[in-house]
Write a structure and sequence with these properties.
Number of helices: 2
Structural class: alpha+beta
Largest sheet: 3 strands, antiparallel
Helix content: 25-40%
Radius of gyration: 15 Å
Shape: globular
Strand order of the largest sheet: 1-3-2
CATH superfamily of the domain at 3-62: Phosphorylase Kinase, domain 1
CATH topology of the domain at 3-62: Phosphorylase Kinase, domain 1
């Protein structure tokens, strides 16, 4: 399974917004355990401390990459290691 990550900027207002996003996405996921509504699925979230501050990170399953790759072939597609291949 492929995953996509969102790494939020470390400024306080970005971190607060990301925490709100995690709360909402967790409620959506837990409220639809069978994925009947086909909403984006938050798989995990964590904080990362680096040289530019503390960043909120979110991990999602990839849902639309195949459709996007068909429509925009220049995007390429991920190989087994998750690297983009086939991009023009």
């Amino acid at each position: 399974m492929f995953h996509t990550w969102q790494v939020q900027k470390s400024a306080k207002h970005y971190t607060e917004a990301a925490q709100d996003e995690v709360t909402l996405l967790t409620q959506i996921r837990d409220g639809d355990p069978r994925d009947a509504k086909h909403c984006v699925r938050l798989l995990d979230s964590f904080e990362h401390s680096g040289p530019n501050g503390r960043h909120m990170c979110m991990v999602f399953e990839v849902r639309v990459f195949t459709a996007a790759a068909r429509r925009f072939p220049a995007l390429g597609h991920p190989d087994k290691e998750g690297r983009c291949v086939g991009a023009v």
